[in-house]
Amino acid sequence: MNLEEQIISSLHQAFKDLFDQEISINELSLQPTRKEFEGTFTFVVFPYLKLTKLNPEASGQKLGEYLLQNCAVVPAFNVVKGFLNISVSQNSWIEIFGQLYNNPSFGQLSTKGKRVMVEYSSPNTNKPLHLGHLRNNFLGFAVSEIMKANGYEVIKANLVNDRGIHICKSMVAYRHFGNSETPESSGLKGDHLAGKYYVIFDKEYKKQINQLVEKGLSEDEAKKNAPLMLEAQEMLRLWEAGDKEVVSLWKLMNSWVYEGFDVTYKKMGVDFDKFYYESDTYLLGKNIVEEGLEKGVFYKKENGSVWVDLSDEGLDEKLVLRADGTSVYITQDMGTCDLKYNDFQINKSVYVVGNEQDYHFDVLFKIMRKLGRPYGDGLYHLSYGMVDLPTGKMKSREGTVVDADDLIQEMVETAESHTKELGKIDGFTADQAAELYEILGLGALKYFLLKVDPKKRMLFNPQESIEFQGNTGPFIQYSHARIASILRKADQIGVDYSSKGFEEINQLEDSERDLIVILNDFEKKIRQAGEEYSPSVLAQYLFDLAKEYNKFYAELPIFNEKNSSIQAFRIALSALTAKTIRKGMSLLGIKVPDRM
RNA sequence: GGUCCUGUAGCUCAACUGGAUAGAGCAACUGCCUUCUAAGCAGUAGGUUUCAGGUUCGAGUCCUGACAGGAUCACCA
């Protein structure tokens, strides 16, 4: 039983003994005491006045006195209005610290025996990754790691959109204007090469539209009849028919793109356990349409198209199969849903996809539940807001995007110039320095994108670039490096900071206690981040932890401390903080350096 | 137009799911390097939580209605 549970259990008993009231233990909860009051936990008595039949002050007073006598960890309390502020004894804090410190699996919750798939990244293969993809990838990776820490078995999946009209556009443009250039001959990364022709297609396509409009066609007609568009559509038909030449060009260009993506993924530090390709899955789902018709979940219209009626759930009617029997987007998503389950028997399935698809996933999940899928309740759309630029929305066709590779490069360079300015890394080899710049640059970028609640849209200003001070990745990394330096010195001069002898300590400084309090919250935050699919919870926590540590660091001496027990304790406290930062940051996909 | 999301300090974000005097960072200002890394610490200033009602002991949080921004509502993906 942890600390909060002990106190709550006592309160529960208090209601029985003092007021003869039986209440559910789940109804009782504690909150952190505000800084300006004495105490660590606060119990709000207002909701229980009907049970105590006393005024708020008297109720708090009675409960407080009960705790004092019956709960070993509580040495003091005070009541302000209806708030019962509960203190925890210093011995308890030291004992708790010992438990955390000696727990080899601190930060890893016990196994749930359940399997979850997290699908993220899911790029189109006609263009390179941009800033929006970075948010997606960092979120997906972090959520996966957080789920692992919560005791789930996690499968990271990437559903690659490798077919369709947009790919054909790049292919058509390449045929016309490519002059057989390759990544090697052009010196371009493969994904950038494909993206280049996607942009060229759009440019040339617009020219053709203008020409047709000048000849007297309407805008709509021009869009439909421009030769390049017709050609792309024809190419899609040929691809679906398995045309040898088209398929081989498709394979060639996709292989370039994958080489490019590999480099970017590696740089970003994300990985996958399973790749799905839409070229394999785009025909799936028709059997589910049949099944839905048999079960009466779907219905057929006169023209043969198949629909689902979700108006009883607050949505509309939705098409699931065209009149000509061909699939729409949601048909294949139903199929892929089953495929994932059949492949891995997953209990939960998380889709990391932007919020412009909220409606689509709402529909998809409701359908799968109506069909009675065993995994239906485990479906979750991790919907995140767009990343905006000061100039507005990014459009890849128009080339107004912040390219992922470029941005990462810039961040690393900024980290480099920053570090050189501070001049603290004498003795680093060139390789070590380069590694540090990468850790810091990526740390800043990842933290920046992860610290915000996923569902909120966010603004990214490349001009101002990302800060390295305050609520940032490098601030937390810096706190870790400081501790690493302390631990090096401790080892050097041979201090034993294993947990022996801490019970001799009878005076805890405020900043020591506050640090233990926040360290004690780590697993609670991991749980919350997992339940809410929100890395920002963890990011915020790590910032608070680092801040608390820096306060401790500034206020209290370590190697100048005469009392050897206290000195060892402070080093141990530092070590546990470093371990927590390292573990927590790793759940966000962020590395921490030992020197910076 | 229907549906959904968002609106908190000049800017970027928090607020433990209804609790105390709404907190951090950036930017501004003031201190602190003869002590373990100043990418740090301490402090000052900055608020009608978009607006108007309502629910109750108590509302940034819940309900209603405005206003603003965004997304979505294809036999596209």
TrEMBL record:
It is an enzyme of class 6 (ligase). Keywords: Aminoacyl-tRNA synthetase, ATP-binding, Cytoplasm, Ligase, Nucleotide-binding, Protein biosynthesis. It holds the Pfam family DALR_1. SMART domains: Arg_tRNA_synt_N, DALR_1. NCBIfam families: argS. Belongs to the class-I aminoacyl-tRNA synthetase family. This is Arginine--tRNA ligase.
